[in-house]
Amino acid sequence: MDKINIQLNNLKNQALKCQNCGLYKTRKNVVFSDGFEKAPIMFIGEAPGKNEDEKGIPFIGRAGQLLRKFLSEVGIGQNDFYIANTIKCRPPKNRKPTQIEKNACRCFLDKQIEFVNPKIIVLVGSTALESFVSDKKLTITKARGNVFEIDNRKFMPIFHPSYLLRHHSVEENSPRDLFKKDLSFIKNEVLNNENH
């Protein structure tokens, strides 16, 4: 086991015991991550939902399956991405995480970013966007598809796949079309330019 695996395993073990906020009382599982620890692309979502809480794996419900389908379609493979969330425990009834909850979990997320050290961080949806981009007027609709440089790292917001579940059209510039274009851009920027 190499250094990154050891670091992330130790971090996960800390997260499994975490009681930094009240969500530990209602969680079934800590949902830490999925994917390849040395991946060039890191996805950060909002919070675990019901399926994720039951299995302990992020993005495996309907929205996650849709994300993975699109990743496969544009040619982003299993070893190309690592997935985490802004918080590791499911908020009751899938409500948005509070700032207190996000702050309580931020130490884990920051360390995940440091250890994985991706070429680009993809912010999936508005909660992830708000966690990294301080401009409160910037909506996900305006931000998606743009690359932001923050603390010498590249961030790119995209729509949350749950939004796509409500918008089925694949016509040009529909949410699904834009989502696929964004993923294709990320693939071309990261995977086609250089090896990680």
Number of distinct helices: 8
Largest sheet: 6 strands, mixed
User: Can you count the beta strands?
Assistant: 6
Mean pLDDT: 94
Shape: globular
CATH superfamily: Uracil-DNA glycosylase-like domain
Q: What is the fold-level CATH name, i.e. the topology?
A: Uracil-DNA Glycosylase, subunit E
* CATH class designation: Alpha Beta
List the helices and strands and how they pair.
Layout: H1 3-16, E1 34-35, E2 41-45, H2 50-55, H3 62-74, E3 81-85, H4 99-116, E4 120-124, H5 126-132, H6 140-143, E5 148-150, E6 153-158, H7 161-165, H8 175-190
Parallel strand pairs: 2-3, 2-4, 4-6
Antiparallel strand pairs: 1-3, 5-6
Helix pairs in contact: 1-4
General description of the model:
This protein is α/β, with parallel strands linked by helices. It has a single domain (3-190), classed as Uracil-DNA glycosylase-like domain (Uracil-DNA Glycosylase, subunit E), CATH 3.40.470.10. Helices cover 42% and strands 13% of the residues. Strand 5 (148-150) and strand 6 (153-158) form a beta hairpin. Helix 1 runs antiparallel to helix 4 (99-116).
Please give a handful of descriptors for the protein shown:
196 residues; alpha/beta; Uracil-DNA Glycosylase, subunit E; six-stranded mixed β-sheet; 6 strands; 42% helix; globular
Question: Summarize this, please?
Answer:
The protein is an alpha/beta fold and 196 residues long.
